[in-house]
Amino acid sequence: MLARRLHDASKRLVTVGPPFLGGAALAAGIFAVPRYATESAPERVTVVVGPGPVKRAFPAAARRLELRIEPNRAGAWNALNLKLTKSGVPLHRARITISMTMRNMQMGTQTFPLRETRGGTYSYEGPALVMAGLWDIVLAVAPPGGKPFRVVIRDRLST
To answer: Do residues 136 and 30 make contact, with C-beta atoms less than 8 angstroms apart?
Structure first.
């Protein structure tokens, strides 16, 4: 009876954690996450850039993203432009926010909206990150009528 319940439970769970724990962890309910929790999470793409100006294109969530960050330096006024297309067609009216967090120091998180400036291009121009180092720049993208996704830009910012 217990074996049957564990078998049924394993169909509804996705395990995460060290593989050597195997069935014991699943039986104990350790490292188990309901399947719906993993299916509903937005897609996440990580891109590593810097130091210096950034000009990169990459796929994410069946779309193409073209990213530019200039001059990409600590203590300077920086401009970030993101062109978003699907099958070569610019994607309009997406809601995009940018959050910037330093990875190796607690400096808080700065979050700003990107605004659409022209034909599927979204921009942020603003105060610089004041300290050189490794930063996570997270773009949260909510395309109209599509599933939201995140792009993590791991940026090594220099002076």
So the answer is: no
Residue ranges with strand state E in the chain: 13-15, 32-34, 43-49, 54-60, 63-70, 78-86, 89-90, 95-102, 109-118, 121-126, 133-142, 149-157
How far apart are the C-alpha atoms of 50 and 62, rounded to whole Å? 25
Q: Which of 71, 98, 103, 99 is nearest to 82 (CA)?
A: 98
Q: Which of 96, 108, 105, 106 is nearest to 138 (CA)?
A: 96
Question: Nearest 5°: CA angle at 47, between 147 and 32?
Answer: 60
pLDDT tens over the chain, length 159 residues: 444 444 444 444 333 344 444 444 444 444 444 444 444 555 778 888 888 999 999 998 889 999 999 999 888 899 999 999 999 999 999 999 999 999 888 888 889 999 999 989 999 998 767 889 999 999 999 999 889 999 999 999 888
Q: What is the pLDDT of residue 41?
A: 52
Task: Report cis status (omega within 30 of 0) of the bond before 71.
Answer: yes
Q: CA torsion sign, 49 to 53 to 58 to 63?
A: positive
CA nearest to 80, candidates 72, 92, 88: 72
Q: Judge if the upstream peptide bond of residue 51 is cis by omega within 30 degrees of 0.
A: yes
